[in-house]
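Thread: "does anyone have the structure for this chain?"

Original post by V.I.:
We have the sequence but no experimental structure in hand. Need at least a predicted one for the grant figures.
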Amino acid sequence: MLDTVRQFFEKYGTHANRIEGDDAEGDDVLVFRSVNGWVVVAWPQYFSDVPAAEFISGALGVLASTVRIHDGDYWSHTLFRDGQVLDRFASMPDYFTDDPAEVSRLAREWAGDPSIVSEAVGRPVDDVAPYLVHIVLDDDGYATAGGGKAVADDSFDREVPWVFTDFWRRLGIDYPNDLTDFTERLRLAPGWDGRLPTGDAEL
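Reply from O.Q.:
Generated one for you, C-alpha cells below.
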C-alpha cells in the first residue's frame, strides 16, 4: 500500500519519503494496519482525497472508500472499484448554493445509492441506507430533516459529520481510535498542496 501511495505523489512531482518513528507531523500520510481487509490511510489536512483514492483503487485493482469532512459541517463519500466511481454521497449537497436548480442537480448527483454500496462491500442494504440521508439545517444549525441517529447504537447523529465512522463500521471499515497507532507513514515535501489535483467531481 505504501509504495502505491508514494507512486501517486511521484506522479505529480511530489517527493514522499518513508519516515520511521511515531512523531507524526501535519504533512504526513499515515497508513494503518489492515482490519477486515480494509487499510485506512489518513491524509494531511486540506488534502484532496478523491484523486488519491481513484489512483490507488485503479493501481491495485481494489475497492476504495474515501470520506472527507468539510469545515466540520458536512461529510461526503466516494466509492471506487478499479479506479472507477461506483457511488457518491454528500450529507449537505446544497452547502455552497441556494439556487434551486443547482440544489436539485447536486442532490441528484450526490444522493448515494445504498444498493450499489451494499452490493460492492457485501453488506445488507439496510445497514447502508440509513446513513445516505441528506441533512437540512435551520438558521440556528439544528437539523430540520435527516437528523438523529441512523442506528440506535451509533456514536454520532447524522447531522454530525463524524457519523461517517459509524457508516464505515457498517461497511467493515474500522476508523482508528488512536491516530498515533499507524504502521507506516510518508512525509510529503514542502509545496505538495500546489502540485496535486483537486478532483473535478468533489463537493
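V.I.: this helps a lot. The first strand starts at residue 16 and ends at 18.
O.Q.: and The chain has six helices and nine strands.
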